[in-house]
């Protein structure tokens, strides 16, 4: 056997274990040793495997001797050691993430996919390979063609890809041979990672780096191949690092030495204004190839989670200009200051007028000076090119319109596919199924104050028209396991039934009247938002998960379920899940979420939202899988349509979080930036009221706003000119700067001031500092819709409160805050510490239920001290946001069978009625101070319960019938001749007017048919007193007179009929007590004293 060629030993760094075993089998076949005994195969293998594998085999079979261990046992132990079977889920995850690498042929890509699919256990491997090839190819045009084929198969996809690859190579060869302009080498472009502050490296480093890169390009031009996987002088197919994992980017196919996606050594600064040191990023050179110019004129639009800057130096009219290559910009632009420095002789008159509208990546408009044609020189190119000149200090951008002329092209534009997201949703289908989850841990238990006695309230009456809908909703909750019928409970809370826009109802409980009074405050603190955001780390890609019906996924114990019992017209129902409106629910839910997700890096839970951040897509999906695994084990579920996965930036608690750090959202100060120009002194005074409230935050305020203050003088006529416009814009710029808004802090009290005007609503969220001053945190304003402008002033002020709370939900939910209003009647309707009034309009009832989920103190503050909110309401944004708690458009009277009147009829008659028309006017505008005439007195006592809808006056949910329609309504109510009690009960469900009960009584009494069939009332039985057994046991007293101007008190003993008469100076309580005290002193105290006066 001397002719045997030795088998090279196993090298784990360059070969897999399965590959080595296959080579060993080939070695046995080549030397005709396949039929030898197992002992000889064992000896051959241990002799050829190398010392490292031999020692490993000895350790694995110890204490037995390796030369005595069966060959099959040695194979199994070494395979488990060197090639353990990977997880099917992990293998599929790697398969779905395998994209075609740069310079990788379609054949090599297909082979790599087959290797990656070895442990995936696909049912149909061809379909999986076809899907991955279509989704993972680098050529976007090829991908579109493949997606357009209806009957695509794996073989057709490979053939199409190979044909496209061959055509691309042929086209490149043709261009090189036919066009000397495109035959030159790719342009080296300086590349650096972008830091928070612009910094430039030393010229020596740039020069040496450029020389090194030029030597690389020269080597490539001489035909020396350079491997993209390791940098060696061999082809990619022969590289032994094809399956290696990079230590820097964790991707397969190359090593760290040639990695092009190495992260920066220094994280970006989180503060925009503070200067940071130069970021020590590794520099490299790239060749720009294959980029087409997109349509549009948007500057700087990008979806990449990391931003890089590519800089080149061009000559503009002979002067060097450093320009940033921006593939997201369709135009090349420079600022006016830059072009004036490069070309001093140029003037704005020489520039052509422009017809382009530019915006930056934040959506802000870029003012354009004009467009000119300048002589541009770059490498071999020299000629006139179009250049857009803009105002302000802005970077010079080399856009896509110059690429063809300068010979620049771009490769490597990746398209992020949602295959990863869909795979995630598929793997956790139980969490994303949309049904109500149920927490599998310990049920929630309330700690009630034993000194507070249980409260049982009566059920509230449900209108006849809503009974069927309420029953349907109750049946649904019973089927979900949220409600459980019971006979009675210690605690019983009535429900309220707001109507949704689709006509269905929502079952809510008014817990602030019952168990909230006995619940001890939950000790778990609400987390500090800044600490949560700082715990995220330096993420580049983010995800946000939203739990569906968050609180109702938590079951409660029997005692807590009984405490949450609701009472309805169908009886009592025990609530088996944690309910909204319970004061301790936020703290309980937050503590549970933090315990559940504890220990997961980059994961921040805040009530029903969970924020996840990571440095790469792979790391993000690993963390998401960890979160969803815990949700699945805990029985919790998320709402898929509200989740955001793998996004470069996410809005969380009012902050915009991206790869560079934490930023305020532009929408928070949009109300100030886009405030319309005042049209009169009233609007200007309102705007200056806002300015005066923030006086301490605005430098040079008196100087900047002086023209506006002068315009308010009574001696100055209203004349808005260029000077006032400039001052107004300057003030808005000051007001909108970052220095105006303070940082959100959980340790400082929150104040939300809301106000309404005839055409808008506004709100300002502020922090209150220890010295009593309030600093703004965020702003909100919007215009009223045409329907909302017809609201009463009371409803407008309430709408401002509800819209403000809804707008700042992320700040306010779970915290106690002061809610400020200048409308004092709201204190009796929406105060969080008072029971809900029994009579409310449907709209106000819905808003009351909405606010019940928040902890707030409603405080009245005069309007003159609320200039900041008043200015926002009088300078609203011209945008309409739907009502956060929309009112129902249902008039119950219209649901009556053969309704006697319609809404249009009532509205027309109300407008002609002398009394109701004036009351409607007061409801729409504002009630006068009074006193009121007798005809208006019934309405004045109910002024906070009246509302207007579709021209009809409503008291609660009952229509106020004008005088001309009352007889028609009474006739309809008396159909069938019901009695007085039944007729009143029917009328109270739908209508009302002053003295309606008396009118119904008179109507029934005047009905001849009713009187003829009315039974005679039974005769009352006389009452006889029992004879007392002793004198002065029962004494009867009464007052007689006046007789001749005098009053007497008569006292009679029931046993002896003894009579005592006393002259009374007066009939007051004190005089009667004085006389009785004298009689009781004489005869003693009786057992019973009888009088006809209480």
Automatic annotation (TrEMBL):
GO molecular function, one term: RNA-DNA hybrid ribonuclease activity
UniProt-listed InterPro entries: DNA/RNA_pol_sf, Integrase_cat-core, Integrase_H2C2, Peptidase_aspartic_dom_sf, Retrovirus_Pol_polyprotein, Rev_trsase/Diguanyl_cyclase, RNaseH-like_sf, RNaseH_sf
Record EC number: 3.1.26.4
Enzyme class at the top of the EC tree: hydrolase
Keywords: Metal-binding, Zinc, Zinc-finger
Residue ranges with Basic and acidic residues bias: 168-194
Domain Reverse transcriptase: 479-657
GO biological process: DNA integration
A Pfam family matched in the record: RT_RNaseH_2
Residues of the Integrase catalytic domain: 1027-1094
The keyword Coiled coil belongs to this UniProt entry's keyword annotation: no
Ranges where the CCHC-type domain occurs: 246-261
Region (Disordered): 168-235
Keyword Transmembrane helix: no
PANTHER family from the UniProt entry: PROTEIN CBG26694, RIBONUCLEASE H
Similarity-based family: Belongs to the beta type-B retroviral polymerase family. HERV class-II K(HML-2) pol subfamily.
Name of protein: Gypsy retrotransposon integrase-like protein 1
